[in-house]
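During the reporting period the student researcher (J.K.) took over the structure-prediction task from the postdoctoral fellow and processed the backlog of single-chain submissions. One of the processed entries is reproduced below for the supervisory committee.
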Amino acid sequence: MSLFNWVDNFLPNLLNALFPVQFAEVNGQIPKVTGLGFLVAITLVLIVGWLSSLFFVERLVSIFDKVLEKTPGIKIIYSSVKDFLEAFAGNKKKFDAPVLVNVDAPDVWRIGFITQKDSDHFGLADYVTVYVPHSYAISGITYIVAPTKIRKLPKSISAAEAMKYVVSGGVTTMEEEKDAVHPSMEKQASFDGPNNI
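J.K. obtained the following structure tokens:
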């Protein structure tokens, strides 16, 4: 909102300087054009997006990326945020295996996403790493759990639908045939192991 306010405050002065007749002062104030700040901000975002898709800008971003990844202190935060964002939409998409994970009580399940099929690097070769997002937030919790604590969701539920359901706090409804998840979960066998994901 502050970007729009800044643009709304900056634009009238600029327009008055460029077009003094059309944007003349009325009662000592330059008139504001409602919604112009929003349009300018959206236009700027589109222009920046277009420029970033050009080859030379892509090259500059790549160089800047390498500098940030080698800067002490910043590289930890930058690489973590970069990996997290790439897990959603990048080439290294990781949140493509939605599951139910049991971590709180025997009959309480959370929707999560398998991010590592084994946790051998922690000495837990037969365990699976699951990221569980929070509702109405961009945060989440990572659990390392035994495969018996995981159930696959039906193939009819995509990763995007599962994420949407979690982030909305369960308010988002899925198509009618996908609402029948609960009975099928009763019959479904537990997760057999990390190789069957």
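The committee noted the following: The two ends are 43 Å apart (CA to CA).
J.K. will present the remaining backlog at the next meeting.
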